Amino acid sequence: MKILESVKAGIVSPPAALERLRQLPFEDLGFAKVDHHRALRQGFAEVVFGKGKTPVQVAGIVRSMLRRKDSRQNVLVTRADLRIFAAVKKTNRAAKFHPLSGVITIERSKEITGKGKILIVSAGTSDIPVAEEALLTAQMMGNRVEHLYDVGVAGIHRLLEHRENLTQARVIICVAGMEGALPSVVGGLVAVPVIAVPTSTGYGASFGGVAALLGMLNSCASNVTVVNIDNGFGAACVASCINRL
Amino acid sequence: MKILESVKAGIVSPPAALERLRQLPFEDLGFAKVDHHRALRQGFAEVVFGKGKTPVQVAGIVRSMLRRKDSRQNVLVTRADLRIFAAVKKTNRAAKFHPLSGVITIERSKEITGKGKILIVSAGTSDIPVAEEALLTAQMMGNRVEHLYDVGVAGIHRLLEHRENLTQARVIICVAGMEGALPSVVGGLVAVPVIAVPTSTGYGASFGGVAALLGMLNSCASNVTVVNIDNGFGAACVASCINRL
Amino acid sequence: MKILESVKAGIVSPPAALERLRQLPFEDLGFAKVDHHRALRQGFAEVVFGKGKTPVQVAGIVRSMLRRKDSRQNVLVTRADLRIFAAVKKTNRAAKFHPLSGVITIERSKEITGKGKILIVSAGTSDIPVAEEALLTAQMMGNRVEHLYDVGVAGIHRLLEHRENLTQARVIICVAGMEGALPSVVGGLVAVPVIAVPTSTGYGASFGGVAALLGMLNSCASNVTVVNIDNGFGAACVASCINRL
Amino acid sequence: MKILESVKAGIVSPPAALERLRQLPFEDLGFAKVDHHRALRQGFAEVVFGKGKTPVQVAGIVRSMLRRKDSRQNVLVTRADLRIFAAVKKTNRAAKFHPLSGVITIERSKEITGKGKILIVSAGTSDIPVAEEALLTAQMMGNRVEHLYDVGVAGIHRLLEHRENLTQARVIICVAGMEGALPSVVGGLVAVPVIAVPTSTGYGASFGGVAALLGMLNSCASNVTVVNIDNGFGAACVASCINRL
Amino acid sequence: MKILESVKAGIVSPPAALERLRQLPFEDLGFAKVDHHRALRQGFAEVVFGKGKTPVQVAGIVRSMLRRKDSRQNVLVTRADLRIFAAVKKTNRAAKFHPLSGVITIERSKEITGKGKILIVSAGTSDIPVAEEALLTAQMMGNRVEHLYDVGVAGIHRLLEHRENLTQARVIICVAGMEGALPSVVGGLVAVPVIAVPTSTGYGASFGGVAALLGMLNSCASNVTVVNIDNGFGAACVASCINRL
Amino acid sequence: MKILESVKAGIVSPPAALERLRQLPFEDLGFAKVDHHRALRQGFAEVVFGKGKTPVQVAGIVRSMLRRKDSRQNVLVTRADLRIFAAVKKTNRAAKFHPLSGVITIERSKEITGKGKILIVSAGTSDIPVAEEALLTAQMMGNRVEHLYDVGVAGIHRLLEHRENLTQARVIICVAGMEGALPSVVGGLVAVPVIAVPTSTGYGASFGGVAALLGMLNSCASNVTVVNIDNGFGAACVASCINRL
Amino acid sequence: MKILESVKAGIVSPPAALERLRQLPFEDLGFAKVDHHRALRQGFAEVVFGKGKTPVQVAGIVRSMLRRKDSRQNVLVTRADLRIFAAVKKTNRAAKFHPLSGVITIERSKEITGKGKILIVSAGTSDIPVAEEALLTAQMMGNRVEHLYDVGVAGIHRLLEHRENLTQARVIICVAGMEGALPSVVGGLVAVPVIAVPTSTGYGASFGGVAALLGMLNSCASNVTVVNIDNGFGAACVASCINRL
Amino acid sequence: MKILESVKAGIVSPPAALERLRQLPFEDLGFAKVDHHRALRQGFAEVVFGKGKTPVQVAGIVRSMLRRKDSRQNVLVTRADLRIFAAVKKTNRAAKFHPLSGVITIERSKEITGKGKILIVSAGTSDIPVAEEALLTAQMMGNRVEHLYDVGVAGIHRLLEHRENLTQARVIICVAGMEGALPSVVGGLVAVPVIAVPTSTGYGASFGGVAALLGMLNSCASNVTVVNIDNGFGAACVASCINRL
Q: What are the pLDDT digits (tens) for H82-127?
C-alpha cells in the first residue's frame, strides 16, 4: 500500500511502482507460501495446483487468495476432484467444477486483457480433458478463447475446413496424443506461435505421452514450442503471456 | 532338379513341386549359408546385407549367387561402400553402385511381377538415402515404383497437390524422420496399406529415429504398419510381397 | 446422394464418384466427429475406440452410426467393458460382447469382401485377448479368418505341425509377448506378409511389451511389419486392407 | 505477380492478397522443393538446414533463393561447415561464416520488423554455440537482439545483477545444458514468454541434453516453453514470431 | 560383554575395543537378521524399512531392538502405514506416527551428538513428505535440525530472504521434484555440503522423479551429491554422518 | 608353498589345502593386482581384459602370468588389437592373434578338463566375432568345443537339420543379435543349459544389442540364462564352469 | 506306449526311444496345449504359470496333468493367488499354497534326481518371495535345496560367516534387488555357477528391478548368469538343469 | 581490499567480512566470467573445466587466475589434453600434465586445510583415470589423500585386507564402473561418508556408466551419496568440503 500511496503522491512513477511491486514478499500459510504478487507480477489469475494437496490445504489457500479485497483476480484450481471442490465450495459459493478437466474456477473479473484470440485445437476425444484445462485457464486469465476439437491428422480434410479459424487466432494451443503430429500440420498453416501440449492418451508405445512429446519436440514447423505432457494449464499461461504483449 | 523332373514327368504337380522346393536346403560358404531358395521361396531377388561384412565376404556371396545359371534373379547388396563395390565389380561387370543409399545392384531380369504400383513418399532431403534403398529394392524385386520427395507435413499443401499420385498406388512406402507424422496423413488419404519407415535423421530429442518410430507406431491411421529405423530394404520387401498378392 | 444420382444419370463414372465420395465431410456429434465416410472410403466397418469414452458417449456414437439406413456396415467397439456394453445393448439388441478381448460387435452384413484367408497365430494363453480383438475385427471387416493358438517358439514342433495352415493364408497376423520371436519364425516359413503384434504380457524386463516390440522391429525375416503393442485392431485393419487388394 | 497486380488494380484487398499468397506453390529443385513463400508467409528469412546436405546442394538452394529479385529477405544457413561456406561464398560474395555456431548469413535487409527486444541468456561457455545460432537467426529475422552470457544458477548473484536487462526484453531465449535450471529462475523474474533451449553439453548423466530437456519441461515457472535440444534456430523462430505480434 | 570387560581390565584399549565391536555378529529373527551393532558401529538410531514388511514382521523387529536394555538408541520405522503403527504401538506405548511421511518414531534419547545444525530446504508442498522423513530421521539420529519449506527456484527472492539460515547450517539437505534445480542454487550460496534428494512429485515428463534426479546429478554447483529418489531417510543418514565428523 | 609342503607332510589333507589356497593373496603390479589364484581357484585359464589397457600394461600382466613356472594355465587376452598383440608377442613367441574376435591366446596346456562338449550356436555372420571369443575362451579353459554358425530363426529348417548336434552337447552357448530369438528355439529343443549372449549387431531399434538382450531375458524356454551384450568370454566361463561339474 | 513297447521288444534302443519321445505331440485343451512331454523331455515337474489365467483355466490344466497315471511328476503352479488355489484344491486334495511366493505345489514324488545341493542366497526381507519361488521350484524338480537369507553386501561379514555353506553348493541361486551386487561378491567366493535373479524391490531409481538387472549383467565375476526380474522359477529351472548334468 | 581494511581497522569483524566477500562480483573475460571469489568463498582451488573450450580460452582463464597476486590458490584444469596443456604451459612454467586423467595442475600452495585423510578406493584398472582426477583435485584443495586401487567386489578378500586403511579415513571416495557395487561394501565397513563415483567403463548393458550409477543410487549402505558418471572432480570437491568441517 505504501508503494501505491507513493505513486498517488507522485513520488514514484507507475512503471517504477509496478517494478517494485514485482519484487515484494508473500504470505506464509505454514504449508505453502501464497504468492499474491505472482498474479500482480504476471497479470494472471491466482492458481492452485490441486494434485497432492488435501481438500483442507486447497481450501485454505483459496480462502487466503480471496481475503485480499483489493485484488479482483480470478481463482483457478487445477487437477482437483469432487472432494476438493466440496471444500472449496464452502469457502466460496461462486466456485464451479468442470469435471472433464478437474478444474475449479471462481470468476471475479470478466475483463479481457489479452489482445487477440487464443485458439485451442485438439486431435481426439480423449485429448478433451487437457484441452478444457487449457481453455478454462486461458479464459480465467482474461483472454477470448475458441476451440476446435477432433481434428486429427489422419483426416486432414477436417482440419483444412477450419483454415479460416486457424488464421484468425493470435496464438494457437495444439493438444494431441498418440503421434503428436497435429502441431506440425497446424504450424505449417499459420504464421503465429503454436504451443504444443502432448497428452498421455494412447497405449503401448505411446508410453504415457512420450511418443507425442518427442514428436512435438522434433516438429518440422519452426513456430512450434512444447510444454510438459498433459500441461494444458502451462500452455494457457504461456499463450496468455504472449497474448498480452 | 529331381523335383522339377518329376514335375515334367507328371508325377508331381507344379504347385506341390513349388511347395517342396520351398523347404529345400542351401549352400554352405563357411562364413554364411547362402540360401538360394529364399529367392525362389519368396519370389524375391537375392540379397546381401553388406554392413559388418568384409569386401571379400560380400564378393564371395555374390559370386555364389551368380554361379547358379538356372536363376535369373536380380542381386542386391545393401549398406555397401566403395570398397565393397570394388570387390563386387570384379565379380560382375554389370554391378552398379548407388552412392546416396550405399546400394549395389546387378540387374539380371527386368520382368515385372508386382501387380500394381509401389509409391515411395518421403518427407525431407535427409530421408532420401533410406527412400532410395527402398526404391531400388522394390525395383530389383520386379515392381513398378514411383517416388514423391520432400512432401513434409509442415507444408501440407505440397502433399495434397499429389493426391492423385497417392490414390493410384497399390502399396505406399512412407519414409520420414523427425516427428514421423507423414504416414498418418498419407494413411488418412488412401485406402491401401502404408508401410512406414522411420529414419535416423534429426538431432537432439529425435534420438536416432526413436521419435519417428514411436510416432509411427502410434499412428491414428489404421492402415499403417512400421518397420525398423532406416530399414528401407525391409519396407520394400513387405511392399513387394503385398504387391504380388 | 447427389453424387450417386449423377452416377446413375451417367454424368459421373463410378470410379470418379467413389473418388469424390472419399473426400466428403462428416457428421458432428459435439464430442466427436463421426466420419461415416471412413467406412465407405476404406471399405471397412464402423469402429469406436471405447477406452477413455463414457458409456453414454460410446452409445451416442453407435446410434449415429446405425441411423444411416443406406449403410450396411458392421459396427465394432474395441476396448469396451460391461458398462459400455449395457449402454450399447440398449441402442441395438443385436450387439454382442466378447469378454476376453472387450470387443462389442453389431453384425449387419455377412458379405465376404476379402480375397483370401487371414490367419491369426498367437504364442501363449495370455496373448489370446489381443488375438481375439484381431480376429473379431478382421471378421467384421468381411474376411475369412482362422486362428492357431499357443504355438510359441520354445516348442517349435507345435508350430511346424501347422505348416500347411500357414502356407494357405493370404495374410498372417502374429501375436506374441515376451521375446516376440514368433513372427520371425513364421515369416521364414511363408511368402506372404506377416503383421506382427507385440503384447504387453510378461513381467520384469518385458517392460509392458517393449521387449516383444523391439524383437519384432528387429526381425530377421523380411516380410514382417509391426503395429503398436496390444494393437490387435490395427493389425486386422492392415491385414484386411491387404486382403482386398 | 498476377495477385499483386490485382491488388494494385483494387480488385483484391491487400490482406486478402496476402492470404492468397500464403497458399501459393513453390519451386522444385529436384532434391528439395524451395518454398519461397515460406519467407513471405511467415515474414521470416530464407533458411537452409545445412547438416546432411552436400556443399553443392546447399549452394544450389541458396542460389535459387537469391535469384528472386523481388525478395529482399536475408538468407541463413544453419549447421554448416567450412566446405559448405566455400560453396556458398562462390554464389554470393556477401556471405559470412560464424564458426562458433556453424551459421552462414547473407544479409540483404537491415529492416527491424520485431516490435521489442529479444534477450538471449545462456548458462555456460559451452552453451555459446547454440546461443549464437539463436542470436544470428533472430537478427536475420529482423529483431533487435541482446545477449547475456555465463549466468548459471550456481552463481545466482551474476544473474540477479542483470535483472534490469531481463525486465526490458519482450521475449527471452534461455539456453542451458546440465541441469537446465536457468529458465525456471529467469521465468520467475519476468512476466514475458521464455523460450528454453536445452543443450547437449555436459557428460555422463546429462545424456546428450536429456537432463536439461526434462528439467525445462518440468519447469515450475509457468511462462516457459521448450524446443528441441540444441535448437537455437527454432527458439529464435518462435521468439521472432512472438515479437511481431 | 567380554570385550568391554577386557577394556575395563585394561587389556584392550577403548578405541581397539570399539573397533572390534564394529565387527561383531548379530541376532537372527528368522526373516531378518537384526544388526544391533549397526547402531553402535555408526552411532545411529535403529531403523526398520517398513515397506514390503507385514505389521507383525515390523513389530517383531522393533521388539527385538527394544529388548536390549544397554542400548538407548532411538528407533525409527520408515515407509510405515497405520496398520504397521497399530502393531508397533502395542509393542511400545511411546511410539509416535507422523502421517505426512509415514514415519514411526520411538524416542529413547534426546542426546545431541551432531556438531552443527542440519538445514532441510524443500521446494514445493508436495515435497514435504520426503522432507519430513529427512527431518525426523536427522532428529532421531541426534542432530539439531531446521527446515525451510516452499522456496522453489521460480520465486528466487523467497530463497534469498533466507540466506542467513542457509549460511548457518553445517550440512544442508535439499529436497526438490520437477526440474530439481534447487540444490544448484542453494549449493552456489553456501560453502557446506548439500545433499540433494529428488522427489517423485510432478507428472508427465517428470517420470516419477527421474527429471529431478538427472538435474541434480548434473548440478553445476560442486558441493552437491545425490541420493535416490524420495530417499529422505538416506539423505539424513549421510547428513548425520557428516555432522558427527 | 608352505601349504603344499604341509600336504606332503600329511598335516593338511589335500581338499583342505585346496580350500586354503583359494583364499590366498595375490601379486601386486602397481596398476593391477594379478590374481594368480583365480585360475587355481576356479580351474580356469589366466585372463586379461585388453580394452582400456595400454599394450605395455597388457604385456606386463601377461609376463607376470607366465613367470610362475608351476602353473601351466593357458593365457587369454580378450578385446585386444594388433598393437597389443605386438607387445604380447615380444613377451611370448607362442602368442596367437585371432583377428575376428580380437583374442590373443597362449596355449600352455592341451588338457581337457570339461566333461562334455560345449556347442556354440550363432545366428548371423555379424555374430561371429562374439561367437569366436566364446569358442576360444572355452577351448583355452580345457573344453571340447564345436560350433554351428548362421542358423537364424527366420530359416528354421537350417537349425532343425542340426538337431543331433544340439542334443549331443552338455552345455550350449547361443549367440544372437537382432531379435535374439535363437536361444528360445534352441532351449526348446534340448534339455541342457543354454547360455544366451546378445550381440550389438543390427541397427536402429536394435539399440546396440538391447533388443536382443530383452528378448533373451524374456525367453519362454526355461533353461536359458543370459550374460551381458557381446560377452562371449563370460558365456564361455559359465559354460566351462558348468562343464566341470 | 508304442515306442516303449518297441524298446521292450529290442527294436528301438532306449536312448533312441528317449530321443523320439522328446519330439512327440501334446494334448490340446482349447485354451492351452498341455505339453506333457516337456516334463519327460527335460526331466522336470509339470508347471503352470498362473498369472493372467482364470482359476478355471488353471484347474483345468492341472487336472489334465494329473490324469496321466504313468507320470509321477510333481505339479507346480507359480504366480497363483487364493482364488486359483481354491480351484486347484478341488482338483487335488494334496495341493499346498505358499502365500509368500504365491506358489501351489502338488508333490507326487520325493525322488532326488539332482546330483548336488542348490543353495539359494538372498539379500533382503523383501527378496524372500522370489527366493521362495526358486526354492519350491528347485525342490519340486527333485533337488536338495538350502537357503541363506538376509546376507546383503552392506554387511559383508554376515555373508563371509557362511563361506562354508557357499563352497558346499553345486549351483547357487542369488536373489537380490536394489543394487544387485550380491551375485558379484558370491561369484568371487565360489567356483560353481551362480544364477542371479534381480528383484523388483526398492523404489525410485531401482526402476522396478532394472538397477539390479543391470548390475548383475555387468557383474565382474565371470561365473554369473542372469534371468529375468523376479524370475525365481526360471533360475530354479536352470539350476536344476545344471544339477542333473 | 576495502573490506579487508575495514577489518584491520576493527570496523568489520572477520566473520562478517568473510560473509561479505562471499557475495562480491567477478571479473568478465568476455567468453567467461572468472569467479575469483569462488575459491575464496569455498576455500577451494581455482578450477577450469577444459572440455569444450579452446586452448586459447583455457590459457586466458588461467592467466586471469594467476594475475591476482594476493591469491595463493592452486589452479586446476580438468578434462584437458596435450594441446591445452601446451597453451597453459606458456602461461605458467610450473604447470604439470597428468595424462591418465587429463588434469593440469599448477601448485602454488602446499598448505593442508582438510582436517583428516581422504581415501580414494577404485575397483578396476579402467577406473584409474577418474580416480586420479579425484585424487589430484583433492590434493590441490589442500587435503591429505591416499589411494587404494583394484579392489573390486568379486575378490572381496583384497578389499578386506585393507580394512585398516578404510577405517582411518575421514571421507572415502569410491570409484567403480560395471555393477557399481563397491560403495555398498565399503559403506558397510566404515562409519564415515562415502562419495560414490560411477564410471563409464564397461560395455553393452553398462550403458556408459548408467548401470553403475543406478547401482550406487540404490545402495543398501546408508552412508553413500552419488555424483555424476566420471565426475571424479565433483566427488573430490564434496569430500574436500566435508573434510574442512
A: 999 999 999 999 999 999 899 999 999 889 999 999 999 998 888 9
Q: How many CB pairs under 8 A join C and F?
A: 119
CA distance F229 to chain C (A): 15
Q: How far is CA C230 from the centre of its chain?
A: 11
Strands (E), chain G: 27-28, 33-34, 46-49, 75-78, 96-98, 103-106, 117-122, 144-148, 171-176, 194-198, 224-226
The residue that leads in pLDDT, E7 or F234, is: F234
Q: Taking a C-beta distance cutoff of 8 angstroms, is the pair A44, A38 a contact?
A: yes
Compute φ and ψ for D128, nearest 5 degrees.
Answer: -60, -40
Q: What's the whole-model pTM score? A: 0.85
Q: By the 8 A CB rule, do B7 and B13 touch?
A: yes
Helices (H) and strands (E) in chain E, counts: 11, 11
The alpha carbon of residue C124 is apart from the nearest alpha carbon of chain G, in Å, by 8
What pLDDT does C9 receive? 64
Calculate the CA dihedral of residues C80, C85, C86, C90 and round it to 10 degrees.
130
* Closest Cβ opposite residue C157 in set G23, G52, G231: G23
Least confident of C189-193, D53-57, D189-193, H81-85: D53-57
**Which residues of chain A are within 8 Å of residue D46 when distances are taken between CB atoms?**
none
Report yes or no: G127 and G177 within 8 Å, Cβ to Cβ: yes
Q: G44: how many CB neighbours lie within 10 A of its CB?
A: 25
Which candidate, H198, H140, H146, places its Cα nearest to that of H168? H146
Q: Which residues of B touch F201 (CB under 8 A)?
A: 52
Question: Chains meeting H at 3+ CB pairs closer than 8 A?
Answer: D, E, F, G
The closest CB to that of E225, out of H115, H116, H238, belongs to H238
Asked if the Cβ–Cβ distance from C215 to F188 is below 8 Å, we say no
Q: Which amino acid is at A99?
A: P
**H238 Cβ contact partners less than 8 Å away, ≥ 6 residues apart:** E193, E222, E223, E224, E225, H195, H225, H227
d(CA A29, CA B144): 73
Q: How far is D122 from chain H (nearest CA, A)?
A: 11
C-alpha H177/C-alpha G185 separation (Å) is 15
Whose cell is 561371429? That residue is F128
Q: How far apart are CA C199 and CA C131, in angstroms?
A: 9
At B16 the pLDDT is 58
Confidence (pLDDT) at F24: 41
Chain segment F119-169, per-residue pLDDT in tens: 999 988 889 999 999 999 999 999 999 999 888 888 888 899 898 999 999
Predicted pLDDT at B201: 87
B148: β partners: B121
Q: Which residues of A touch C (CB under 8 A)?
A: 125-126, 128, 149-151, 155, 157-158, 161, 201, 203-206
Size of interface D-H (CB pairs under 8 A): 44
Q: Which of B110, B116, B108, B84 is nearest to B97 (CA)?
A: B84
- Mean pLDDT, residues A134-146: 96
* Radius of gyration in angstroms for the set of CA atoms belonging to chain C, rounded to a whole number: 19
Contacts of H20 (CB under 8 A, 6+ apart): H3, H12
Q: Are D58 and D46 in contact (CB under 8 A)?
A: no
**Which residues from B are below 8 Å from D229, CB to CB?**
203-205
Residues of A in contact with E101 (CB under 8 A): none
Inter-CA distances, F36 with D129, F29, F48, F87, F133, Å: 52, 12, 12, 21, 22
* Partners of chain D (3+ Cβ pairs below 8 A): A, B, E, H
Query: What's phi and psi for A52, nearest 5 deg?
Result: 85, 0
Pull the grid cell for residue F192.
541342457
